[in-house]
Design brief:
DNA-binding, 5 helices, homodimer, 42% helix, mainly alpha, 117 residues
Chain lengths: 117, 117
Amino acid sequence: MPVDLELSPKQKRANGAPCCEPVVYPDVQREEALRMAEVAKALGDPIRLQLVDVLRKHAGKVCVCELVPLFDISQSTLSHHLGKLRAAGIVDSERKGLWAYYYVIPDALKELSAWLS
Amino acid sequence: MPVDLELSPKQKRANGAPCCEPVVYPDVQREEALRMAEVAKALGDPIRLQLVDVLRKHAGKVCVCELVPLFDISQSTLSHHLGKLRAAGIVDSERKGLWAYYYVIPDALKELSAWLS
DNA sequence: GTATTACATCGACAGTCGTGAGTGTTATTG
DNA sequence: CAATAACACTCACGACTGTCGATGTAATAC
């Protein structure tokens, strides 16, 4: 489990001395982290993750009424999840008469995906 | 923005008729979705995302006291974030005397990364 | 021994989350 | 017109979140 540790032997710092100066910094800057964390947070619910999975493979071809029976939640809760995904910029929707068709916005997951790999 | 929609013209269902049967199902199963959502949720905070970014590139070489000044949060809050990452199975730590060294568990992000790409 | 460092944990706080029942809005059917 | 479908929105609920200060614990320095 542990990873190779090549540590310079450390010593407790003197009384009142400032703590060890940071020698490394994140490559990912704050704004970038904010954007990616927002996407990750939206994917941080199993139902929303499965919703994105369905929508990615059947973009614009599934109405909300077909999504409801896939999950053991009420229609209003599903609508809430779709709203969260839209607020995160992951999906958008189109109305056709009574029905609403959602689809994953192209490249919405691109930045996070690239960072993860 | 909208995606190509090739929809068979739908009709409102008759009174009392069951709603449209779902024709598609998520490829990602429930347990898989639970695991990936847990990882995504842990990455759903900008500070934790930057923490993982640092740890991925300097595994086992940075003690917690070097991480604290990188972020504008208290030491206890940083410890809390590291605990969350560990609970999600993303990182683990090793104690060396007074210091604690965290590292990203190999392949911890693999499943989510593969699904995203 | 005592003092101090590094880090984790506890307690508390306001804020957000996922959830469902109920309601509202709009479009279609009859 | 009235009735009903599909969907979004409002309200309320308990549960969880990120945050900090304070405290606890273990190791090092003196």
